[in-house]
Amino acid sequence: METGKKRIAVVGYGGMGGWHVKHILKSDVLELAGICDIRDCRKEKAREREIYVYETFEDVLADPTVDLLTLAVPNELHMPMAVKAMEAGKNVISEKPVALNSTELQAMIDASNRTGKLFTVHQNRRWDCDYLKMKEVYASGELGDVFGIESRVQGSRGIPGDWRGHKEHGGGMILDWGVHLIDQMLGIVYDRKVEKVYCRCDHITNYEVDDGFKLDLYFENDLTARIEVGTSHFIALPRYYMTGSNGSAIIENWTSDCRVTCCKNWDEKDVVPVVTAAGLTKTMAPRDENTIMTEVTPLPTSDVHDFYRNVCRAIDGKEEQIVKHDQLMRVMKIMEAAFRSDELGAPVAIDDKIC
Asked: What does pTM read for this prediction?
């Protein structure tokens, strides 16, 4: 960069804080100023790795060489610390979920507008290769008029025993995984508004927060998207499935190839029925290979550090930040509507705006 590397401090040296430090130390646009954490064991760990340690958050804010900080602290602290940092003249990246509700998020956005400091969120799963592939398939139009998309992550280990299990810390799978999968779905379906949502939460291993959920987004023009997260599934359903008027696409898991099957001839004269124990069916008979075309393609590659490159260039006014304020609020409003829908046991209409 023409202006040199940005100096960044990481506040919170736990799991994600350590992840950020690891990437920053290899960065072509960032220089690690140091870390800050309230736990002595984490401070000592940083010192052992020859990383500078700020004793307090105030020390970070008082360092005039720090251009930018990443907040990897408990979720309920994101808003007050982000606002304080921006008012102290620092640009801010927050981990997700960015806030516990839209009121807190608006306070962070207002602080950014008031101070002129960059504020964004580390929506790192915009660089997931499976997501990028499905985004590409949707935009290509090869499936015809897409009317159904399914996005799932399913595991069998229950909800983790950390902050994710406690409501006061912003726990639960909607705020943990839903924030990513909703953001991805809105990135795929870039051209339609969401009209209503319907959500049912699971409480299989945890009754304080949701340990799974099924969320349906009803987009305009008859497209329905199912987002599902489960922590008690021992056989996982496909990561992505998309279907339209002329074809379907599937990605089985995080790293598998994408399979797209499209119709090339609707006039199949001699359909061989499927014989089942209770009868036969032509309606559900598989298509003859002469009427369909299947293509298997690998997932694209990506570099998650492009997020930081964008942040640095946005600070210098050279490009727009990728993760924008209105996009953050759109996801937050949908999550809030999902919680309301689960409470009511009914669909909830929303006033959605395409970013």
From this structure: 0.95
DSSP state of 118: -
Residue 255 burial class via C-beta count within 10 angstroms: exposed 0-12, middle 13-18, buried 19 and up: exposed
Q: Of residues 279 and 17, which shows the higher confidence score?
A: 17
Three-state SS at 286: coil
* Contact residues for 269 (Cβ-Cβ < 8 A; gap 6+): none
Residue 20 CB neighbours (<10 A): 25
3-state secondary structure of 198: strand
Q: Which residues pair with residue 30 across a beta bridge? A: 6
Q: Rounded to whole angstroms, how far apart are CA atoms 332 and 340?
A: 12
Domains of the chain: residue spans and CATH: 6-122 (3.40.50.720), 128-303+333-349 (3.30.360.10)
Q: Among all chains, which residue has been given the structure tokens 């639960």?
A: 172
Q: What is the pLDDT of residues 239-275, one digit of tens each?
A: 999 999 999 999 999 999 999 999 988 877 677 778 8
Taking the C-alpha atoms of residue 338 and residue 350, their distance in angstroms, rounded to an integer, is: 10
Residue 1 has pLDDT above 60, yes or no: no
The verdict on whether omega for the bond into residue 347 sits within 30 degrees of 0, i.e. cis, is no
Would you give the distance in Å from CA 257 to the centre of its chain?
21
pLDDT tens for 168-191 read: 878 899 999 999 999 999 999 999
Neighbouring CB atoms inside 10 A of 49's CB total: 11
16, containing H or E segment:
helix 15-24
Query: 134 pLDDT exceeds 90?
Result: yes
Backbone φ/ψ region at 144: left (φ over 0), alpha (ψ -120 to 50), beta: left
